[in-house]
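Open question from group meeting: does this chain pack into something compact, or does most of it stay loose? Before anyone orders reagents, we agreed to write out a predicted structure and look at it together. Recording both the input and the output here so the notebook holds the full record.
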Amino acid sequence: MKTALVYHPDYLRHDTGSHPENAHRLRYLVAHLQQTGVWEAVRHLAPRRATPAEVQLVHTADYVEFVRKLS
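Structure tokens returned:
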């Protein structure tokens, strides 16, 4: 089985400034994967929205509802 990577250029729009989860980190990671040949070796998958049931595999239903109302 081949390793898969879910990626879309829109991910670079999720920039949180100095927080470790930012666009700079993702740009660096993609460049590193390309330079080392890993980028071409992995299977690329298009992103999709997670279902509520999938999100609730890692978050409580109350938290999922809270975020839904907040957004």
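Observations to bring back to the group:
The two ends are 37 Å apart (CA to CA).
The mean pLDDT is 92.
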